[in-house]
Amino acid sequence: LLFLQMRCTILVLLVLCSVALCDVYLHNPRGSNNRLNGNGQNVQNNQRLCDTQNNDKGGYCWGPPLYYYVGSHLMIEWTNQHACNNPKVHCNIIIQYICGDEVRDGVTTTRIPDNEDEYNTKVSPNPLTGEDEEVFLYGMHEDYQYYQDCKNRHRNKGLFTADQNMNNRNAARNTRQDNNGNQNGFECPEERDYYPYWHPTPWKDIAILVDDKENCDYFQSESQNVKAKNYCSIPEHNNQYVCVENGGTWIKRTSWGIDPPACEEAQWTRSNHLGNSALHNNHEGYASSYNWTIPNDIHENCVLRLRYNISTGDYEGWGFGGKDFVNASWNGELSPVYQDEVVEYFGKTYEMALNTDQYGRTFQDRSHVFEIRERPDHIDDDARIWNLNVRGKRGNIVQVYPAVEYDFVPNRLHTKVGDYVHFQWTGCDTNPANNDGEGTRQTDRSNIAQMDTQRHNKPWDTPDDPMFDDERLQARMAFIDQVNCAAGQVDDEDVTNCQKLNAAPTPYFDGGIYRVNRTGEWHYMGTRNNNFSNRSQKGYMTAEDSFPSWAIALIVLGVVGIAVVAVVGAVALYAKSHPKKFDII
Fold first, then answer.
1. Nearest 5°: phi and psi at 92?
2. Model's pTM, two decimal places?
3. How far is residue 286's CA from residue 288's CA, in Å, rounded to a whole number?
4. How would you class 257 by CB atoms within 10 Å of its CB: exposed for 0-12, middle for 13-18, buried for 19 or more?
5. Nearest alpha-carbon partner for 22 in 84, 69, 65, 71
6. Which of 5, 384, 400, 456 matches a 20 to 30 Å C-alpha distance to 169?
7. In the chain, how many H helices and how many E strands?
Protein backbone atom coordinates (compact mmCIF):
# COMPACT_ATOMS: atom_id res chain seq x y z
CA LEU A 1 0.00 0.00 0.00
CA LEU A 2 1.51 3.26 -1.02
CA PHE A 3 1.10 6.34 1.11
CA LEU A 4 1.15 9.40 -1.09
CA GLN A 5 2.15 12.96 -0.31
CA MET A 6 1.57 15.71 -2.89
CA ARG A 7 3.81 18.75 -2.96
CA CYS A 8 4.83 20.78 -6.05
CA THR A 9 5.19 17.47 -7.83
CA ILE A 10 3.64 14.13 -7.04
CA LEU A 11 5.92 12.20 -4.76
CA VAL A 12 5.36 8.72 -3.47
CA LEU A 13 6.13 6.44 -0.61
CA LEU A 14 7.16 3.03 -1.79
CA VAL A 15 6.13 -0.24 -0.21
CA LEU A 16 7.81 -3.58 -0.45
CA CYS A 17 7.05 -7.24 -0.49
CA SER A 18 9.86 -9.15 -2.09
CA VAL A 19 8.22 -12.56 -2.10
CA ALA A 20 5.41 -13.86 -4.24
CA LEU A 21 2.90 -14.39 -1.46
CA CYS A 22 2.77 -11.72 1.22
CA ASP A 23 -0.82 -12.36 2.20
CA VAL A 24 -3.38 -10.83 4.53
CA TYR A 25 -6.58 -12.59 5.59
CA LEU A 26 -9.63 -11.30 7.41
CA HIS A 27 -11.05 -13.72 9.99
CA ASN A 28 -13.70 -11.56 11.63
CA PRO A 29 -15.81 -10.52 9.91
CA ARG A 30 -15.27 -13.46 7.59
CA GLY A 31 -12.99 -12.49 4.71
CA SER A 32 -13.99 -13.78 1.30
CA ASN A 33 -10.63 -13.55 -0.54
CA ASN A 34 -12.94 -13.55 -3.62
CA ARG A 35 -14.51 -16.82 -2.47
CA LEU A 36 -18.27 -17.34 -2.84
CA ASN A 37 -19.88 -20.79 -2.46
CA GLY A 38 -17.41 -23.03 -4.23
CA ASN A 39 -16.53 -26.20 -2.33
CA GLY A 40 -12.95 -26.56 -3.57
CA GLN A 41 -9.80 -25.94 -1.57
CA ASN A 42 -8.94 -22.97 -3.81
CA VAL A 43 -10.88 -19.88 -4.80
CA GLN A 44 -12.61 -20.49 -8.12
CA ASN A 45 -12.04 -16.97 -9.46
CA ASN A 46 -9.57 -14.66 -7.73
CA GLN A 47 -10.55 -11.77 -9.99
CA ARG A 48 -14.21 -11.86 -9.02
CA LEU A 49 -14.37 -8.72 -6.83
CA CYS A 50 -10.82 -7.36 -6.46
CA ASP A 51 -7.15 -8.21 -6.75
CA THR A 52 -6.19 -9.54 -3.32
CA GLN A 53 -2.66 -10.73 -4.30
CA ASN A 54 -3.34 -13.52 -1.79
CA ASN A 55 -3.01 -17.28 -1.99
CA ASP A 56 -6.01 -18.89 -3.73
CA LYS A 57 -6.48 -21.21 -0.75
CA GLY A 58 -7.54 -18.36 1.57
CA GLY A 59 -10.99 -17.10 2.42
CA TYR A 60 -14.28 -18.25 3.91
CA CYS A 61 -17.21 -19.35 1.78
CA TRP A 62 -20.45 -17.37 1.75
CA GLY A 63 -23.01 -17.63 4.54
CA PRO A 64 -26.17 -15.73 5.45
CA PRO A 65 -25.15 -12.14 6.27
CA LEU A 66 -24.66 -10.69 9.74
CA TYR A 67 -25.88 -7.31 10.94
CA TYR A 68 -24.40 -4.92 13.48
CA TYR A 69 -26.12 -2.21 15.51
CA VAL A 70 -25.05 1.41 15.25
CA GLY A 71 -22.49 2.21 17.93
CA SER A 72 -21.77 -1.44 18.71
CA HIS A 73 -18.21 -2.70 19.00
CA LEU A 74 -16.96 -5.17 16.39
CA MET A 75 -13.58 -6.82 16.80
CA ILE A 76 -11.92 -6.99 13.38
CA GLU A 77 -9.35 -9.80 13.31
CA TRP A 78 -6.78 -10.71 10.67
CA THR A 79 -3.40 -12.32 10.03
CA ASN A 80 -0.66 -10.84 7.84
CA GLN A 81 2.25 -12.89 6.59
CA HIS A 82 5.30 -10.65 6.55
CA ALA A 83 5.42 -8.75 9.81
CA CYS A 84 4.22 -5.42 11.09
CA ASN A 85 5.66 -2.93 13.59
CA ASN A 86 8.81 -5.01 13.37
CA PRO A 87 12.41 -3.69 12.94
CA LYS A 88 12.71 -5.79 9.77
CA VAL A 89 10.07 -3.84 7.82
CA HIS A 90 7.92 -0.75 7.54
CA CYS A 91 4.23 -1.66 7.70
CA ASN A 92 0.89 0.08 7.47
CA ILE A 93 -2.64 -1.31 7.50
CA ILE A 94 -5.68 0.56 6.19
CA ILE A 95 -9.19 -0.50 7.24
CA GLN A 96 -12.14 0.90 5.25
CA TYR A 97 -15.78 0.19 4.49
CA ILE A 98 -18.29 0.86 1.72
CA CYS A 99 -22.10 0.82 1.68
CA GLY A 100 -24.39 1.13 -1.33
CA ASP A 101 -27.63 -0.04 -2.92
CA GLU A 102 -25.75 -2.03 -5.55
CA VAL A 103 -23.03 -3.41 -3.26
CA ARG A 104 -23.52 -7.17 -3.20
CA ASP A 105 -21.86 -10.58 -2.92
CA GLY A 106 -23.44 -11.89 -6.10
CA VAL A 107 -24.48 -15.48 -6.73
CA THR A 108 -21.92 -16.58 -9.32
CA THR A 109 -18.14 -16.87 -9.27
CA THR A 110 -17.95 -15.32 -12.74
CA ARG A 111 -16.34 -11.87 -12.72
CA ILE A 112 -18.74 -8.98 -13.33
CA PRO A 113 -18.77 -8.03 -17.04
CA ASP A 114 -17.46 -4.63 -18.08
CA ASN A 115 -20.67 -3.98 -19.97
CA GLU A 116 -23.31 -1.41 -19.06
CA ASP A 117 -26.14 -3.65 -20.27
CA GLU A 118 -25.01 -6.75 -18.39
CA TYR A 119 -23.36 -5.86 -15.07
CA ASN A 120 -26.68 -5.47 -13.24
CA THR A 121 -28.19 -8.72 -14.54
CA LYS A 122 -30.65 -10.33 -12.11
CA VAL A 123 -31.72 -13.94 -11.65
CA SER A 124 -34.46 -15.79 -9.76
CA PRO A 125 -34.68 -17.85 -7.60
CA ASN A 126 -31.61 -17.11 -5.48
CA PRO A 127 -29.02 -19.83 -6.29
CA LEU A 128 -27.36 -19.45 -2.87
CA THR A 129 -30.45 -19.83 -0.70
CA GLY A 130 -33.10 -21.32 -3.01
CA GLU A 131 -35.49 -18.55 -1.99
CA ASP A 132 -37.96 -17.27 -4.58
CA GLU A 133 -36.43 -13.82 -4.95
CA GLU A 134 -34.76 -11.80 -7.68
CA VAL A 135 -31.10 -11.06 -6.94
CA PHE A 136 -28.08 -9.56 -8.71
CA LEU A 137 -26.10 -12.23 -10.55
CA TYR A 138 -22.61 -10.71 -10.26
CA GLY A 139 -20.77 -9.59 -7.15
CA MET A 140 -19.85 -5.90 -7.03
CA HIS A 141 -18.28 -3.48 -4.54
CA GLU A 142 -17.04 -0.42 -6.48
CA ASP A 143 -19.59 0.62 -9.10
CA TYR A 144 -19.54 0.55 -12.89
CA GLN A 145 -18.98 4.30 -13.43
CA TYR A 146 -16.10 4.34 -10.96
CA TYR A 147 -14.32 1.70 -13.05
CA GLN A 148 -15.04 3.53 -16.31
CA ASP A 149 -13.46 6.68 -14.86
CA CYS A 150 -10.41 4.68 -13.79
CA LYS A 151 -10.00 3.10 -17.23
CA ASN A 152 -10.25 6.46 -18.98
CA ARG A 153 -8.08 8.47 -16.59
CA HIS A 154 -4.36 8.78 -17.23
CA ARG A 155 -2.19 7.19 -14.59
CA ASN A 156 -0.12 9.42 -12.35
CA LYS A 157 3.23 9.57 -14.15
CA GLY A 158 4.91 11.23 -11.20
CA LEU A 159 5.03 7.89 -9.40
CA PHE A 160 8.00 5.62 -8.91
CA THR A 161 7.92 2.55 -11.19
CA ALA A 162 11.54 1.40 -10.65
CA ASP A 163 12.97 -0.30 -13.75
CA GLN A 164 9.59 -1.64 -14.85
CA ASN A 165 8.72 -1.11 -18.52
CA MET A 166 5.16 0.21 -18.52
CA ASN A 167 5.03 -0.43 -22.29
CA ASN A 168 3.17 2.81 -22.91
CA ARG A 169 0.28 1.65 -20.74
CA ASN A 170 -1.01 4.96 -19.48
CA ALA A 171 -4.35 4.39 -17.73
CA ALA A 172 -4.94 4.50 -13.97
CA ARG A 173 -5.56 0.76 -14.11
CA ASN A 174 -1.87 0.28 -15.03
CA THR A 175 0.48 0.45 -12.06
CA ARG A 176 3.97 -0.74 -11.23
CA GLN A 177 2.42 -3.64 -9.38
CA ASP A 178 -0.12 -4.43 -12.12
CA ASN A 179 1.39 -3.36 -15.44
CA ASN A 180 -1.23 -5.15 -17.52
CA GLY A 181 -4.20 -3.45 -15.89
CA ASN A 182 -6.29 -6.62 -15.65
CA GLN A 183 -9.90 -6.26 -14.53
CA ASN A 184 -10.62 -7.37 -10.97
CA GLY A 185 -14.24 -6.62 -10.21
CA PHE A 186 -14.64 -2.87 -10.65
CA GLU A 187 -11.74 -1.80 -8.43
CA CYS A 188 -9.27 0.83 -9.64
CA PRO A 189 -5.69 -0.54 -9.39
CA GLU A 190 -4.13 2.89 -8.86
CA GLU A 191 -6.45 3.60 -5.93
CA ARG A 192 -5.80 0.12 -4.55
CA ASP A 193 -2.02 0.63 -4.58
CA TYR A 194 -1.79 4.19 -3.21
CA TYR A 195 -3.07 5.85 -0.06
CA PRO A 196 -4.21 8.53 0.51
CA TYR A 197 -5.57 8.58 -3.06
CA TRP A 198 -5.81 11.94 -4.81
CA HIS A 199 -9.16 11.36 -6.58
CA PRO A 200 -12.55 10.51 -5.00
CA THR A 201 -13.13 6.91 -3.93
CA PRO A 202 -16.25 5.15 -2.61
CA TRP A 203 -14.42 3.90 0.49
CA LYS A 204 -14.69 5.49 3.93
CA ASP A 205 -11.69 5.20 6.24
CA ILE A 206 -12.01 3.43 9.59
CA ALA A 207 -8.44 3.22 10.84
CA ILE A 208 -4.79 3.49 9.84
CA LEU A 209 -2.40 1.28 11.78
CA VAL A 210 1.21 2.41 11.52
CA ASP A 211 4.64 1.65 12.88
CA ASP A 212 5.39 5.36 13.37
CA LYS A 213 2.65 7.43 14.98
CA GLU A 214 4.44 10.67 14.08
CA ASN A 215 2.95 10.24 10.62
CA CYS A 216 -0.65 10.05 11.87
CA ASP A 217 -1.43 13.76 11.42
CA TYR A 218 -0.61 13.53 7.72
CA PHE A 219 -2.65 10.41 7.05
CA GLN A 220 -5.65 11.69 8.97
CA SER A 221 -5.65 15.11 7.33
CA GLU A 222 -5.42 13.60 3.83
CA SER A 223 -8.26 11.13 4.38
CA GLN A 224 -11.37 11.64 2.25
CA ASN A 225 -13.29 11.47 5.52
CA VAL A 226 -12.24 15.09 6.11
CA LYS A 227 -10.68 16.32 2.87
CA ALA A 228 -12.41 17.02 -0.45
CA LYS A 229 -11.01 15.22 -3.51
CA ASN A 230 -11.00 16.45 -7.10
CA TYR A 231 -11.51 15.06 -10.60
CA CYS A 232 -11.81 16.42 -14.13
CA SER A 233 -15.03 16.71 -16.12
CA ILE A 234 -13.03 15.17 -18.97
CA PRO A 235 -12.24 11.78 -17.39
CA GLU A 236 -8.84 11.22 -19.01
CA HIS A 237 -7.13 14.14 -17.22
CA ASN A 238 -5.72 13.49 -13.77
CA ASN A 239 -4.64 16.96 -12.57
CA GLN A 240 -6.03 20.46 -12.50
CA TYR A 241 -3.54 22.08 -14.89
CA VAL A 242 -4.01 19.61 -17.74
CA CYS A 243 -7.75 19.46 -17.12
CA VAL A 244 -8.28 23.21 -17.45
CA GLU A 245 -5.79 23.54 -20.34
CA ASN A 246 -7.88 21.05 -22.32
CA GLY A 247 -11.20 22.77 -21.64
CA GLY A 248 -12.29 20.70 -18.68
CA THR A 249 -13.59 21.72 -15.28
CA TRP A 250 -11.72 20.69 -12.14
CA ILE A 251 -14.56 19.46 -9.95
CA LYS A 252 -14.41 19.18 -6.18
CA ARG A 253 -16.21 16.33 -4.45
CA THR A 254 -16.77 17.21 -0.82
CA SER A 255 -15.38 15.05 1.93
CA TRP A 256 -17.49 12.40 3.60
CA GLY A 257 -17.97 14.84 6.47
CA ILE A 258 -17.16 12.31 9.16
CA ASP A 259 -14.41 12.00 11.76
CA PRO A 260 -10.89 11.36 10.52
CA PRO A 261 -9.83 7.72 10.71
CA ALA A 262 -8.31 6.49 13.92
CA CYS A 263 -4.53 6.23 13.70
CA GLU A 264 -2.82 3.81 16.05
CA GLU A 265 0.40 1.91 16.41
CA ALA A 266 0.15 -1.47 14.69
CA GLN A 267 0.59 -4.65 16.71
CA TRP A 268 3.90 -6.51 16.45
CA THR A 269 3.95 -9.59 14.24
CA ARG A 270 6.84 -11.69 13.00
CA SER A 271 7.96 -12.32 9.40
CA ASN A 272 6.96 -15.38 7.36
CA HIS A 273 4.19 -16.24 9.77
CA LEU A 274 0.41 -16.13 9.40
CA GLY A 275 -0.16 -16.14 13.13
CA ASN A 276 -0.94 -14.11 16.19
CA SER A 277 0.49 -10.80 17.28
CA ALA A 278 2.75 -10.46 20.31
CA LEU A 279 0.39 -8.37 22.42
CA HIS A 280 -3.31 -7.58 22.37
CA ASN A 281 -5.10 -5.85 25.23
CA ASN A 282 -2.39 -7.02 27.65
CA HIS A 283 -2.82 -10.63 26.52
CA GLU A 284 -0.06 -12.24 24.48
CA GLY A 285 -0.77 -14.53 21.57
CA TYR A 286 -4.01 -13.20 20.05
CA ALA A 287 -4.73 -12.31 16.44
CA SER A 288 -4.02 -8.82 15.20
CA SER A 289 -7.20 -6.83 15.69
CA TYR A 290 -8.93 -3.48 15.73
CA ASN A 291 -12.06 -2.68 17.73
CA TRP A 292 -14.40 -0.85 15.34
CA THR A 293 -17.31 1.21 16.61
CA ILE A 294 -20.03 0.71 13.98
CA PRO A 295 -20.88 4.14 12.47
CA ASN A 296 -24.33 5.67 12.11
CA ASP A 297 -24.42 4.74 8.43
CA ILE A 298 -27.52 2.57 8.27
CA HIS A 299 -27.60 0.35 5.20
CA GLU A 300 -28.35 -3.25 4.23
CA ASN A 301 -25.33 -3.64 1.96
CA CYS A 302 -21.89 -2.88 3.39
CA VAL A 303 -18.43 -4.42 2.94
CA LEU A 304 -15.20 -4.13 4.93
CA ARG A 305 -11.79 -3.85 3.22
CA LEU A 306 -8.38 -4.32 4.87
CA ARG A 307 -5.19 -3.41 2.95
CA TYR A 308 -1.69 -4.38 4.09
CA ASN A 309 1.81 -3.38 3.06
CA ILE A 310 5.39 -3.77 4.13
CA SER A 311 8.15 -1.55 2.81
CA THR A 312 11.89 -1.62 2.31
CA GLY A 313 14.66 0.34 3.97
CA ASP A 314 17.00 -0.04 0.97
CA TYR A 315 16.25 3.59 0.14
CA GLU A 316 14.15 6.37 1.67
CA GLY A 317 10.69 5.76 0.37
CA TRP A 318 8.68 7.52 3.02
CA GLY A 319 9.67 11.17 2.75
CA PHE A 320 8.60 12.30 6.19
CA GLY A 321 10.69 14.63 8.29
CA GLY A 322 12.00 16.59 5.31
CA LYS A 323 13.48 13.53 3.58
CA ASP A 324 13.15 12.95 -0.17
CA PHE A 325 10.58 10.64 -1.69
CA VAL A 326 11.25 8.23 -4.47
CA ASN A 327 9.36 9.47 -7.52
CA ALA A 328 9.37 9.31 -11.30
CA SER A 329 12.79 10.97 -11.47
CA TRP A 330 14.20 7.73 -10.01
CA ASN A 331 12.70 5.47 -12.69
CA GLY A 332 14.53 3.42 -15.32
CA GLU A 333 18.31 3.47 -15.13
CA LEU A 334 18.21 5.73 -12.08
CA SER A 335 16.16 3.22 -10.07
CA PRO A 336 17.77 2.36 -6.71
CA VAL A 337 16.73 -1.29 -7.25
CA TYR A 338 16.80 -3.55 -10.30
CA GLN A 339 15.10 -6.77 -11.33
CA ASP A 340 17.11 -9.74 -9.92
CA GLU A 341 19.94 -7.34 -9.14
CA VAL A 342 23.48 -8.74 -8.88
CA VAL A 343 25.40 -7.28 -5.93
CA GLU A 344 29.02 -7.53 -4.84
CA TYR A 345 29.89 -8.60 -1.30
CA PHE A 346 33.49 -9.14 -0.06
CA GLY A 347 34.82 -9.80 -3.53
CA LYS A 348 32.03 -12.18 -4.59
CA THR A 349 28.80 -11.51 -6.51
CA TYR A 350 25.32 -12.65 -5.55
CA GLU A 351 22.02 -12.46 -7.40
CA MET A 352 19.13 -11.10 -5.39
CA ALA A 353 15.63 -12.58 -5.75
CA LEU A 354 14.22 -9.14 -6.47
CA ASN A 355 11.09 -8.45 -8.50
CA THR A 356 10.63 -4.70 -8.82
CA ASP A 357 6.90 -4.92 -9.58
CA GLN A 358 6.63 -6.56 -6.17
CA TYR A 359 9.16 -4.30 -4.50
CA GLY A 360 6.29 -2.27 -3.20
CA ARG A 361 3.03 -4.17 -3.18
CA THR A 362 -0.52 -4.02 -1.88
CA PHE A 363 -2.45 -6.94 -0.40
CA GLN A 364 -6.05 -6.92 0.70
CA ASP A 365 -8.99 -8.94 1.85
CA ARG A 366 -12.65 -8.00 1.91
CA SER A 367 -15.60 -9.25 3.91
CA HIS A 368 -18.85 -10.62 2.61
CA VAL A 369 -21.77 -8.17 2.72
CA PHE A 370 -23.15 -7.19 6.14
CA GLU A 371 -25.85 -4.79 7.35
CA ILE A 372 -25.65 -1.76 9.64
CA ARG A 373 -28.90 -1.50 11.60
CA GLU A 374 -30.49 1.00 13.97
CA ARG A 375 -30.34 0.22 17.67
CA PRO A 376 -33.43 -1.29 19.28
CA ASP A 377 -35.63 1.39 20.84
CA HIS A 378 -35.09 0.11 24.38
CA ILE A 379 -31.28 0.53 24.25
CA ASP A 380 -29.91 4.00 25.03
CA ASP A 381 -27.61 5.63 22.51
CA ASP A 382 -24.73 5.73 24.99
CA ALA A 383 -25.07 2.09 26.10
CA ARG A 384 -22.18 -0.12 25.02
CA ILE A 385 -23.01 -3.06 22.73
CA TRP A 386 -20.48 -5.84 22.14
CA ASN A 387 -20.73 -8.15 19.14
CA LEU A 388 -19.87 -11.74 20.02
CA ASN A 389 -19.23 -13.76 16.86
CA VAL A 390 -17.58 -16.96 15.63
CA ARG A 391 -14.57 -17.07 13.33
CA GLY A 392 -13.06 -20.02 11.46
CA LYS A 393 -14.14 -22.84 9.20
CA ARG A 394 -14.54 -26.60 9.17
CA GLY A 395 -11.32 -28.63 8.97
CA ASN A 396 -8.08 -29.28 10.77
CA ILE A 397 -5.33 -26.70 10.90
CA VAL A 398 -3.64 -27.91 7.69
CA GLN A 399 -6.89 -28.18 5.75
CA VAL A 400 -8.17 -24.70 6.65
CA TYR A 401 -4.85 -22.82 6.32
CA PRO A 402 -4.46 -19.89 5.68
CA ALA A 403 -7.91 -19.55 7.24
CA VAL A 404 -8.27 -20.62 10.89
CA GLU A 405 -10.20 -23.16 12.90
CA TYR A 406 -13.27 -22.26 14.94
CA ASP A 407 -13.13 -19.85 17.85
CA PHE A 408 -15.20 -17.11 19.44
CA VAL A 409 -14.52 -13.42 18.76
CA PRO A 410 -13.73 -11.72 21.07
CA ASN A 411 -12.20 -14.76 22.70
CA ARG A 412 -12.06 -12.89 26.03
CA LEU A 413 -14.88 -10.37 26.38
CA HIS A 414 -14.64 -7.86 29.22
CA THR A 415 -17.92 -6.07 29.94
CA LYS A 416 -19.47 -3.91 32.64
CA VAL A 417 -22.89 -4.10 34.23
CA GLY A 418 -25.26 -2.20 31.97
CA ASP A 419 -23.48 -3.19 28.75
CA TYR A 420 -25.21 -5.31 26.09
CA VAL A 421 -23.92 -8.34 24.19
CA HIS A 422 -25.22 -9.31 20.74
CA PHE A 423 -24.73 -13.06 20.18
CA GLN A 424 -24.61 -13.81 16.46
CA TRP A 425 -22.62 -15.93 14.03
CA THR A 426 -22.68 -17.38 10.55
CA GLY A 427 -20.83 -19.91 8.42
CA CYS A 428 -21.41 -21.87 5.24
CA ASP A 429 -22.51 -25.29 4.00
CA THR A 430 -20.06 -25.58 1.10
CA ASN A 431 -16.74 -26.19 2.82
CA PRO A 432 -14.43 -28.67 1.03
CA ALA A 433 -15.98 -32.12 1.24
CA ASN A 434 -12.95 -33.87 2.72
CA ASN A 435 -12.28 -31.37 5.52
CA ASP A 436 -12.37 -32.95 8.96
CA GLY A 437 -15.08 -32.04 11.42
CA GLU A 438 -18.07 -33.14 13.42
CA GLY A 439 -21.62 -33.49 12.11
CA THR A 440 -22.81 -33.24 8.53
CA ARG A 441 -19.96 -32.89 6.04
CA GLN A 442 -19.08 -29.45 4.65
CA THR A 443 -21.23 -27.60 7.19
CA ASP A 444 -20.40 -24.95 9.81
CA ARG A 445 -22.47 -24.99 13.02
CA SER A 446 -21.68 -23.40 16.38
CA ASN A 447 -23.36 -23.00 19.75
CA ILE A 448 -22.65 -21.79 23.29
CA ALA A 449 -22.71 -24.09 26.31
CA GLN A 450 -21.40 -22.96 29.69
CA MET A 451 -18.56 -24.90 31.33
CA ASP A 452 -16.73 -24.67 34.63
CA THR A 453 -13.26 -23.47 33.56
CA GLN A 454 -11.29 -23.05 30.34
CA ARG A 455 -9.58 -26.37 31.00
CA HIS A 456 -12.85 -28.29 31.07
CA ASN A 457 -14.24 -29.90 27.93
CA LYS A 458 -17.80 -30.78 28.91
CA PRO A 459 -20.71 -28.38 29.49
CA TRP A 460 -21.83 -27.62 33.04
CA ASP A 461 -25.51 -28.48 33.32
CA THR A 462 -26.10 -26.94 36.76
CA PRO A 463 -23.76 -23.94 37.01
CA ASP A 464 -23.61 -22.04 40.28
CA ASP A 465 -23.74 -18.77 38.33
CA PRO A 466 -25.57 -19.25 35.01
CA MET A 467 -24.32 -17.22 32.08
CA PHE A 468 -27.89 -16.22 31.20
CA ASP A 469 -30.60 -15.20 33.67
CA ASP A 470 -33.29 -17.19 31.84
CA GLU A 471 -32.91 -20.97 31.78
CA ARG A 472 -34.77 -21.12 28.46
CA LEU A 473 -32.23 -18.74 26.93
CA GLN A 474 -29.38 -20.80 28.35
CA ALA A 475 -30.85 -23.83 26.60
CA ARG A 476 -31.54 -21.99 23.32
CA MET A 477 -27.94 -20.80 22.96
CA ALA A 478 -26.87 -24.45 23.07
CA PHE A 479 -29.67 -25.99 20.96
CA ILE A 480 -29.70 -23.12 18.37
CA ASP A 481 -33.36 -23.53 17.34
CA GLN A 482 -33.05 -27.01 15.84
CA VAL A 483 -36.18 -28.75 14.55
CA ASN A 484 -37.10 -32.20 13.23
CA CYS A 485 -34.69 -34.02 15.52
CA ALA A 486 -34.28 -37.79 15.36
CA ALA A 487 -35.97 -39.67 18.19
CA GLY A 488 -33.11 -42.11 18.71
CA GLN A 489 -29.44 -42.60 17.91
CA VAL A 490 -28.54 -41.83 14.30
CA ASP A 491 -25.38 -41.44 12.24
CA ASP A 492 -23.18 -38.46 13.13
CA GLU A 493 -23.74 -36.95 9.68
CA ASP A 494 -27.51 -37.46 9.61
CA VAL A 495 -29.30 -34.12 9.18
CA THR A 496 -31.71 -35.07 11.98
CA ASN A 497 -28.89 -35.58 14.51
CA CYS A 498 -29.46 -32.69 16.89
CA GLN A 499 -26.69 -33.85 19.20
CA LYS A 500 -24.28 -32.74 16.45
CA LEU A 501 -26.31 -29.57 15.68
CA ASN A 502 -27.07 -30.94 12.20
CA ALA A 503 -30.75 -29.98 12.29
CA ALA A 504 -30.11 -26.24 12.47
CA PRO A 505 -31.51 -25.13 9.09
CA THR A 506 -28.63 -22.74 8.30
CA PRO A 507 -25.19 -21.91 9.74
CA TYR A 508 -26.55 -18.49 10.73
CA PHE A 509 -27.77 -18.00 14.28
CA ASP A 510 -28.99 -14.79 15.89
CA GLY A 511 -29.07 -15.33 19.62
CA GLY A 512 -30.30 -11.79 20.26
CA ILE A 513 -29.01 -8.88 22.30
CA TYR A 514 -29.02 -9.01 26.11
CA ARG A 515 -28.14 -6.69 28.95
CA VAL A 516 -25.36 -7.57 31.38
CA ASN A 517 -27.24 -7.41 34.68
CA ARG A 518 -24.66 -8.58 37.22
CA THR A 519 -20.99 -9.08 37.83
CA GLY A 520 -19.32 -12.41 37.33
CA GLU A 521 -17.18 -14.46 34.98
CA TRP A 522 -18.29 -17.22 32.69
CA HIS A 523 -16.57 -19.86 30.57
CA TYR A 524 -18.26 -21.40 27.55
CA MET A 525 -17.62 -23.76 24.66
CA GLY A 526 -19.03 -24.97 21.36
CA THR A 527 -20.15 -28.58 21.82
CA ARG A 528 -19.75 -29.58 18.16
CA ASN A 529 -16.37 -28.11 17.34
CA ASN A 530 -14.51 -28.57 20.62
CA ASN A 531 -12.76 -31.65 19.26
CA PHE A 532 -10.22 -31.85 22.07
CA SER A 533 -7.68 -33.95 20.18
CA ASN A 534 -6.73 -30.99 17.99
CA ARG A 535 -9.27 -28.18 18.26
CA SER A 536 -10.64 -25.93 20.99
CA GLN A 537 -13.65 -23.64 20.57
CA LYS A 538 -13.91 -21.93 23.94
CA GLY A 539 -14.61 -18.41 25.15
CA TYR A 540 -14.52 -16.33 28.31
CA MET A 541 -16.68 -13.42 29.42
CA THR A 542 -16.46 -11.28 32.52
CA ALA A 543 -18.61 -8.45 33.87
CA GLU A 544 -17.48 -5.81 36.35
CA ASP A 545 -19.36 -3.08 38.16
CA SER A 546 -19.94 0.04 36.11
CA PHE A 547 -17.80 1.81 38.74
CA PRO A 548 -14.55 0.17 39.85
CA SER A 549 -14.38 -0.96 43.50
CA TRP A 550 -12.04 1.89 44.45
CA ALA A 551 -14.53 4.41 43.04
CA ILE A 552 -17.39 2.80 44.94
CA ALA A 553 -15.31 2.88 48.14
CA LEU A 554 -14.46 6.52 47.51
CA ILE A 555 -18.13 7.37 47.00
CA VAL A 556 -19.05 5.55 50.23
CA LEU A 557 -16.33 7.37 52.14
CA GLY A 558 -17.50 10.63 50.65
CA VAL A 559 -21.11 9.99 51.69
CA VAL A 560 -19.99 8.99 55.19
CA GLY A 561 -17.78 12.09 55.39
CA ILE A 562 -20.65 14.34 54.33
CA ALA A 563 -22.92 12.68 56.89
CA VAL A 564 -20.33 13.20 59.67
CA VAL A 565 -19.86 16.85 58.73
CA ALA A 566 -23.62 17.31 58.65
CA VAL A 567 -24.04 15.77 62.09
CA VAL A 568 -21.20 17.83 63.58
CA GLY A 569 -22.57 20.96 61.97
CA ALA A 570 -26.06 20.26 63.29
CA VAL A 571 -24.73 19.68 66.81
CA ALA A 572 -22.68 22.88 66.69
CA LEU A 573 -25.66 24.88 65.46
CA TYR A 574 -27.87 23.43 68.18
CA ALA A 575 -25.23 24.17 70.82
CA LYS A 576 -24.98 27.75 69.67
CA SER A 577 -28.71 28.28 69.70
CA HIS A 578 -29.27 26.44 73.03
CA PRO A 579 -26.23 27.32 75.19
CA LYS A 580 -27.83 26.32 78.49
CA LYS A 581 -28.31 22.76 77.27
CA PHE A 582 -24.52 22.41 77.20
CA ASP A 583 -23.54 23.95 80.58
CA ILE A 584 -20.82 22.02 82.37
CA ILE A 585 -21.88 21.01 85.86
1. -140, 145
2. 0.90
3. 7
4. exposed
5. 84
6. 5
7. 7, 27
